[in-house]
Design a protein that fits this description.
The complex is a heterodimer. Chain A is an all-beta fold. Chain A contains no helices and eleven strands. Helices cover 0% and strands 47% of the residues of chain B. The chains are: A mainly beta, B mainly beta.
């Protein structure tokens, strides 16, 4: 069965970086893109960006451009999201999810990784 | 910027039917697929409708989706409400070639 397993919770200081991993299994990794979505405490879903696991192409949300980087390691079927220059309002749960490149739905989600930014 | 607007909350009694609207700010909502997700507290979202009106396997046929092009909106309808349907519901589509989520609607079944 399709699974996306994310790395454990992180606590970071303002100005630091965080890198969240997302290991996929149960399907051909390069057949679907990986989308990253975050959710601040008590708030809605915010799209962060997307990476093509086929060729490494990326799209990032304009508000995160310059601070976020998404990569994918096809040898281990693992996607990564790195967010730099962390601020307190980056605190939240970060989800990776599988996106169908043709029909665009996000059909399987990771369990989420809590990132806390605090001095 | 393309925005999808949802009502913040809806409530209805068990056994009844509820409809959640998702209105696009510009353009034609019918130009791209609309998908719907359910999120229960403390859990990741799960897809309940994809491609405007298709149900993934395992989602009860009490869930249905539709598009109203004249109103530039999509709707999620849940019939025969059960207490287990409580949670937050998000619509999702594309705008400016990027994924856009609606703000979410909290469904209370009481």
């Amino acid at each position: 069965q399709v699974q996306l397993v994310q790395s454990e919770a992180e606590v970071k200081k303002p100005g630091a970086s965080v890198k969240v991993s997302c290991k996929a299994s149960g399907y051909r990794f390069t057949s679907y893109g990986i989308t990253w979505v975050r959710q601040e405490p008590g708030q809605g879903l915010e799209w962060m960006g997307w990476i093509s696991t086929y060729n490494g192409n990326t799209k990032y949300a304009p508000k995160l451009q310059g601070r976020v980087a998404m990569t994918a390691d096809t040898s281990t079927s693992t996607a990564y999201m790195e967010l730099r220059s962390l601020r307190s309002d980056d605190t939240g749960v970060y989800f990776c999810a599988r996106e169908d490149d043709v029909t665009t739905e996000i059909d399987f989600w990771g369990q989420g990784t809590l990132v806390t930014v605090s001095s | 910027n393309f925005i999808l607007t949802q009502p913040p909350s809806v409530s209805e009694s068990p056994g009844k039917t509820v409809t959640i609207a998702c209105t696009g700010s510009s353009g034609s909502i019918a130009s791209n697929f609309v998908h719907w997700y359910q999120q229960r507290p403390g859990s990741a979202p799960t897809i309940v409708i994809y491609g405007d009106n298709r149900r993934p396997s395992g989602v009860p046929d009490r869930f249905s989706g539709s598009i109203d092009s004249s109103a530039n909106s999509a709707s999620l309808t849940i019939s025969g409400l059960k207490t287990e349907d409580e949670g937050d519901y998000y619509c999702q589509s594309y705008g400016d070639r990027n994924v856009v989520f609606g703000g979410g609607t909290r469904l209370t079944v009481l």
